Amino acid sequence: MWLIAAALLVGLLVMQVTSDLRLVNSLLFTAAYSLVVTLIYGICWKSLARRSLNVLTHFYMAASALRMILALVVVLAGMAILRDSKPQLLGFVGIFVSFYLLLLIFDCLFFARVEKNKKINK
Q: How far apart are CA 64 and CA 80, in angstroms?
């Protein structure tokens, strides 16, 4: 959640400095989407980690694929909604992809650390 908040604040700062507030709605939507998806992902992961540590890698793969498909659907819906305004469309896609990649990198690093600790403790 801190990562999403930091990315949101950086985005708002960039918009303030450039005095270009046309993409505020895209930024707020993307932050809200990221927060909801991350919270659901975290709750599912925590629940699964308590029950069975053996399936966490399968969960990571399945959840990553599901998140990617959901993100693609959201981007396609955004493209359909914003098709009349090319600058807003490109801004939305850029912001959305930035948040998606940021969270993807965080998840990869997090799960790499979890797997490393799991191997050390064996």
A: 24
